[in-house]
Design a protein that fits this description.
single chain
Length: 208
């Protein structure tokens, strides 16, 4: 990819002045939205390089919107993750980028629209990836707290698990119940009477 200036570049001194002012205004619009303490001067310096990237992307032949995606993702990397960050960025760049760089809207408006759309996409995708990563870390920490490491009494047992347990020995058959068989006595048979007890010693048996 090459840069087709076609006379659209200003003098170096004027270009630096214009981009420095635009970077300053961009930083002022979004610096307060950072989740981590960062000075506005640091953010301004960071955004100044992004303006160079956007300028080159607008003049590049063939055109590619990929630099816009990278700029959107980079805002998330420096912890500018609030939704207002991308909103303020898109509004500022849509209103001023072409004018401040001395580029006419007839020639470059389409490229600018694609770059800003890619910037929003890169920001949204990076924000989603970070949220998923944070969620996975929270989930892993919760599992570690609730479960802890699984104890292994015998380290060798994990590598050589025992086989299936042995089957219990067969139980002996139950003894048949006392008394007559379940079906009763055969026909014509009756249970014999028990003999009377013997008389006490010294007593003759009574005649029957």
């Amino acid at each position: 990819m090459t840069t087709g200036d076609q006379g659209w570049r200003r003098s170096s001194a004027e270009d630096r002045t214009v981009k420095s002012q635009l970077a300053r205004d961009w930083a002022q619009a979004i610096a307060s939205l950072a989740y981590r303490p960062t000075t506005r001067a640091e953010i301004e310096l960071y955004l100044r390089s992004h303006l160079e990237t956007l300028h080159d992307a607008l003049l590049a032949q063939p055109f590619s919107a990929e630099p816009g995606r990278e700029i959107g993702a980079s805002l998330v990397r420096i912890h500018l993750t609030k939704p207002e960050t991308v909103e303020q960025t898109l509004v500022l760049l849509a209103d001023r980028l072409l004018t401040d760089l001395g580029l006419d809207t007839y020639t470059f408006q389409h490229q600018l629209n694609r770059l800003l759309g890619a910037l929003a996409q890169g920001f949204t995708r990076a924000l989603r990836d970070r949220a998923l990563s944070d969620l996975e870390q929270v989930w892993a920490a919760a599992l570690a707290v609730n479960l802890g490491p699984l104890p292994i009494a015998n380290p060798g047992a994990a590598a050589n698990p025992p086989g299936p347990p042995a089957a219990p020995p067969p139980r002996p058959p139950a003894a048949p119940p006392a008394g007559p068989p379940p079906g009763g006595l055969p026909p014509g048979r009756s249970v014999p009477d028990e003999p009377p007890p013997p008389p006490p010693a010294g007593m003759a048996p009574s005649p029957s």
